[in-house]
Design a protein that fits this description.
134 residues, alpha/beta, Rossmann fold, 4-stranded parallel sheet
């Protein structure tokens, strides 16, 4: 089992130091930290692709926050499924203790990821809670 970190900022102008410090505090070897400096609108990112190629069943992936993984809700769900179900990788979202698949191996982990993504969308104003019919 290896431990990896994934860091993403949206542009070369943004600073990834906060995320890098979090990975270093977890003692993740620098050669196992992958960093992309581009939009999270999709997963067509060079370092993310390299990371996915390296990950094998039993590995552990840390990300600082769910929005560092991506910006597209459906894509985040799909990648989460690929990583956890198909590849057998555990994921820990540092800023959200509930998103730790080591603790939630069953459907609850997926459910919690869905809730986190929905909260993220609400926070960004791209999701509205449906009003009940009157």
């Amino acid at each position: 089992m290896k431990t990896y970190g994934y860091i993403r900022v949206s542009s070369n102008d943004q600073n990834e130091d906060r995320q890098l410090v979090a990975m270093q505090e977890l003692k993740i070897p620098s050669r196992q930290i992958y960093t992309d400096k581009q939009s999270g609108k999709d997963f067509d990112r060079p370092e993310y692709k390299k990371l996915i190629e390296q990950l094998v069943s039993g590995d552990l992936l840390y990300i600082k926050s769910i929005d560092r993984l991506g910006r597209n809700y459906a894509e985040i769900q799909n990648q989460w499924r690929i990583l956890t179900k198909e590849k057998g990788v555990d994921i820990v979202v540092i800023d959200m203790a509930l998103l730790d698949t080591r603790l939630n191996k069953d459907l609850m982990g997926t459910f919690i990821a869905d809730i986190a993504a929905t909260l993220w969308k609400m926070e960004r104003g791209i999701y509205e809670i449906p009003h009940m019919a009157r």
